[in-house]
Give the backbone structure.
Amino acid sequence: MAVRAEAGQRAGSRGTAPAVSDPARVRNAALVGPSGSGKTTLVEALLAHTGEIPRAGTVLDGTTVCDHDPAAVRQQRSVAVSVAPLLHADTKINLIDTPGYGDFVGELRAGLRAADAALFVVPANAGREGPIDPTIVAQWEECAAVGMPRAVVIARCDNPRADIEATITACQEAFGNGVAPLYLPVREGENLTGLYGLLSQTPAGQAPPAPRTHAPR
Ligand SMILES: Nc1nc2c(ncn2[C@@H]2O[C@H](COP(=O)(O)OP(=O)(O)OP(=O)(O)O)[C@@H](O)[C@H]2O)c(=O)[nH]1
Ligand SMILES: [Mg+2]
């Protein structure tokens, strides 16, 4: 198991991995999903978005934080579990990137053992390709059996074959009706321009509106 605990030290704008003193403010979230679903790329985007690294690397260039192993760079896929921490809302989130390729299932198990939650990364074209891979459904059910909180992230939304609505339906059929969208994509023409939070009723990244107050009489 290769662990990259100091992701921010690679080239990070922070210069160090984020630290919190209160253990209650640490979360370990494992990314689970088939090979090529976009887990490592998603981690990279999250690290860049939160300022842990100055810009996102790519799997193709072998410049991601998580796929640092020379074998991963050569194979252009993760070969071992790796950890990349970021800070969000005063909470340190250790993203545990796991390999989706079946040969490395031991690494996936190691990652899940350390996790308090699992993010199932499903590519946005999955809804067009038939039912969700039964291996992934089995992993979802395993996590459910031990009471591990789970969420679905639909990735690779710029894929020309992306069909987000069909993929949400496929996830509901595979994982159960408990899967409900929290964010929906915002489109301008053919392009995805952002996300709209259904709970906050605001575009993602914007503060929700202040609660309405009654004018004093
Ligand atoms: N255009 C586009 N390409 C993406 C996106 N996400 C991932 N890719 C590409 O898809 C390929 C697989 O992405 P990875 O991030 O390595 O997928 P993974 O789930 O980590 O795969 P494993 O490590 O094998 O489990 C790479 O060539 C990425 O560059 C995306 O959102 N848009
Ligand atoms: Mg990967």
Q: What stands out?
A: Residues 33, 35-41, 58-60, 77-78, 99-101, 155-156, 158 surround guanosine-5'-triphosphate (ligand 1) (CB under 6 Å). Residues 182-217 form one domain. The chain is about 25% helix and 25% strand. Residues 88 and 213 are 29 Å apart (CA to CA).
